[in-house]
Amino acid sequence: MDDASATLYRQFANKRPGLRLVSVEPAALPITILNTTVLAQEKKPLPLLDEFVIRAISGGLRAVSDIGGLLGLEESLIAASIVDLATAGNLRYNPTLRTATLTAIGEQVAQDLSAVTPVELSIKPAFDRMLWRVADYARDDIINKSLAVDEGRIMLPARHLKHIAGDEVTARSLNLLLQGDLENARQLEILRVIRTKASVHRYLRCWLLVFANESRGSAAELAVVVNDASSSLHDIALEEAGGAERLGISVHAGDSRTELDPALEVARIQTIEPASIPDLLSVLTAAPIEESLLVRSLDMYEHRIVLREAFETATQRILIVSPWVKGAVVTTEFLAAAENALRRGVQLDIVHGYGDDDRGSDAHALRKLSNLQSRFKKNFNLIRHPNTHAKVLIFDDVWISTSFNWLSFKGAADRTYRMEEGTLVKSNEHADREYAQYRERLADINPPAPVRL
Which InterPro entries does the annotation name (predicted)? Predict the structure, then answer.
């Protein structure tokens, strides 16, 4: 898990009362970059009525009644505008005669107004195909489909499959976008959309939150995070498109947690309320204290944080036991983190396997790990065990026993999530003992023996 998703877990863990945040998944929002030609002009510094009053006086009118008659407005509105313009130094007003004349400043404003001429411009706004409207998105987060797939993102559905019609992109909607662009908003005003057509289809990086309640079986509720903010409009659009069922997402109860020794069970701190437990990262990074012991339950989302921390902070050893290995977990980022640990001299052991073959794992993921092992033969063991039931992570003084599949928690075609729970034990004594037991069991694995982990 990267820093962004870990932050989102902390930010949105309690977003849906009564539901548990099961996962934060990278997603991709369908958008289209448009080629749009508009009629635009420099934005004028005056309100529209004030502009017309200055133009009328510059054209030779003086009396409030005459200006009101020309514009077809009540004299009280014209008088109010003249007072504002006089206060700004644009007019001299004679209240007795109810007439107005331009000052030198007002004459310059009139000249500037007459010099503003509408021009045709070509712009490339983004069109959100999920909300079916133009939107203001950072171009750095807009990617093509192949990259979205490579990043393992869940592709969110578009509202329509039809072409974007010209009347669905309006001058008003584009001007609203410009309000978010302070530089252009001060300079430009779009008067009319002349024509628009799709240029390229792209995707916007976003996040999908998966919530569930164990008592509701496989039902899942989804929320969309765009530009680091929860988007209720996208939540509604996704629900209207079929929600979790449309994306093939379901949530099931995980395997039962392995019981610890009685003493550890007594010491175990439940993660019922995040505020009531020691912060995970502070626990992991705390300096080891002789004979110290901390036993803490580990929620599903925290497993990814721990796995990342293992690769980033371990100084001695990392042992991962996971029945299956998936490419969605063994990514370029994962391999880079593993290589950095190996270069620091950390001993890395990865144990996988279940049954007589690797049909539950991705061949390309195993091949990548094997290639990495060939480069770090001294301190990297990649071991296939035919009966790997355990799901274990040990690094330095941390031992984690869990039902969470460390190397296959992502990548299932049916997108079934499990409410896994584990136990983190931070203790040199217990980590040393468990690590030694696993290394001893694995020592006789060549030739393979049906040892049950």
Answer: PLD-like_dom
